[in-house]
Amino acid sequence: MQHFKLSDFTAEILCDGPNNDAVLETAITDNTLTLNLTAKSSLPRFVTLRWSFASDPEILVLGDCWERSYANLEFLALKDNDRYMPWYFIADAKTTQYCFGVKTQPNAFVSFRYDADGVTAWVDCQNGSGGVALNERKIKLCEFVFCKYESDDTFACLQDYCKQLCDRPLLPDRMIYGGNNWYYAYGKSDYETIVADAALQAKLAEGLDNRPYMVIDDGWQINGCAGPWLPNDRFRNMKALADEIKALDVLPGIWIRPLYTRDKSIRKDMLLQRGKKAEYLDPTVPAVQDLLRADVTRIRDWGYQLLKYDYTTVDLFGRYCREFTKTISDEKNWHFYDRGKTNAEIVLDLYRLIRDAAGDMLLIGCNTVSYLCAGLVHLNRTGDDTSGREWDRTKSMGVNTLAFRLAQNNAYYMADADCVGILKDYIPWEKNRQWLDLLANSDTALFVSCDRADEEKAAALSKAYHEAQKIHNLRPLDWKTTRTPQHWRTDQKECNYNW
């Protein structure tokens, strides 16, 4: 990208039907390009921008993902880089690094294609699967930021760049760690088991002033993986359970899936009209917004100090975004109740509603859009699920997201690469012990899902909890040649793992 100029682009607005009155306004200041869009009757869907220039085909390129990563992040030579890259990319030219992307909390979904002849940006301003009805409203779609670094330290450059992209990260004031019951219980749990889990966490964190969390995952509510968010017969009284956890000097946390409910009192007009049948709440409907506020407020009033909310991307758009494409919405002929906002604006409004209702609760986003939740959640699950049963899944999902999104840690949020799942003898302890050690050295969240710990495992977990309280400045060393790096370095030592 040595011949790249931010101001040297061509642009086009793509609408449903002809573009009669949609207008794009641009402004350039230093290394930033701002896009503003307005339209009266036209329905804009995309804005495309093209920068044409020649590049070295051997340059290495790393992009990002729409929401979680799915073991699919890696450096590719430009000649092999036939992919859409959401949000940003870094181009490694050995002693020079080029970073190009958009600031967090944009009002559009933005992805890039980088080829030998230049870069194309796709700015998705759709509502559902069609154009947005702006009705003369002007919106700032996004702010592009270009940075050039004269350095061969690719990781440090990406860290610095990520900090420039997020003006107001929402960061916890301490290390976040503790237990989560999903990867040993998989929904089969009860009140008494959670109390025992919390007691184990208290024991493992003995001597630490910073207390651990115990997060109750899916399975506590009436319907599996769905609302209404009220306790089933096995859990009975969620306020009493939170009080018992706190009495053990452990912080209670809980999981919800806010946009999916089997509550038969929900009216049809409160549901998204997407796909063959309506099942998911439409967050642009005022009555749904009231319901979401009530759900989060109830959980806060029960005394829970951490809220993990899940599935919002797939419930809104019907897909998990495993593949790089120029748009997050592939289903046809649907829109939100409020047709006047872009998909990105609607997602941002949802995250802001939850943030406001949560008060002083710590928030973990899971299946949240990374660039939209930055600044609105304290922690973000940066990759797909690890496992308590399959080591290959933990290795591919966990190690990949930790390596390739670690630069976002403490720039957008505290990263959460997911749990160490310890369930009987499914995964060899030697493998899980290495994953535990890597997380403890990572300065990211450390959650353990354990169905009880023998003396050896308890000692290792306690040691990891204590180690996690320190600052390590971990970085991957062999990340340009593999999706699952084995060689890492902290400020104090090199860490080598045999995955």
Mean pLDDT: 96
Could you name the ranges where pLDDT drops below 50 across 5 or more consecutive residues?
none
Strand order of the largest sheet: 21-20-19-18-17-14-13-23-22
Shape: globular
Q: How many structural domains can be distinguished in the coordinates?
A: 2
- Per CATH, the class of the largest domain reads Alpha Beta
Q: Give me the number of helical elements.
A: 11
Number of strands: 26
The main sheet comes to: 9 strands, parallel
Distance between the termini: 35 Å
* CATH homologous superfamily caption of the largest domain: Aldolase class I
Tell me the structural class: alpha/beta
- What fraction, in percent, of the residue positions are helical? 10-25%
Strand content: 25-35%
Please give the CATH architecture of the largest domain: Alpha-Beta Barrel
The CATH topology of the largest domain corresponds to TIM Barrel
What's the assembly state of these chains? single chain
Calculate Rg over CA atoms: 23 Å
Q: Could you please describe the fold and organization of this structure?
A:
A hairpin with a 4-residue loop joins strand 8 and strand 9. The protein contains eleven helices and 26 strands. It has helices at residues 154-165, 182-185, 191-204, 238-247, 286-302, 312-317, 343-358, 370-373, 391-405, 429-440, 455-467, and strands at residues 10-15, 23-29, 32-38, 44-52, 60-63, 76-77, 85-86, 88-92, 97-102, 109-115, 118-124, 138-149, 177-180, 213-216, 221-223, 226-231, 251-256, 306-309, 362-365, 379-381, 414-416, 420-422, 446-450, 475-476, 487-489, 494-496. It starts with 9 loop residues before the first strand and ends with a strand. The model has no long low-confidence stretch (mean pLDDT 96). It is globular. The protein is α/β, with parallel strands linked by helices and 499 residues long. The chain folds into two domains: 10-165, Beta-galactosidase, Chain A, domain 5, CATH 2.70.98; 177-496, TIM Barrel. Helix 10 (429-440) runs parallel beside helix 11. The strands form five sheets. The chain has a nine-stranded parallel sheet with strand order 21-20-19-18-17-14-13-23-22. It has a seven-stranded antiparallel sheet with strand order 2-3-12-9-8-5-6, with helices on one face. Strands 1-4-11-10-7 form a five-stranded antiparallel sheet, with no helix packed on it.
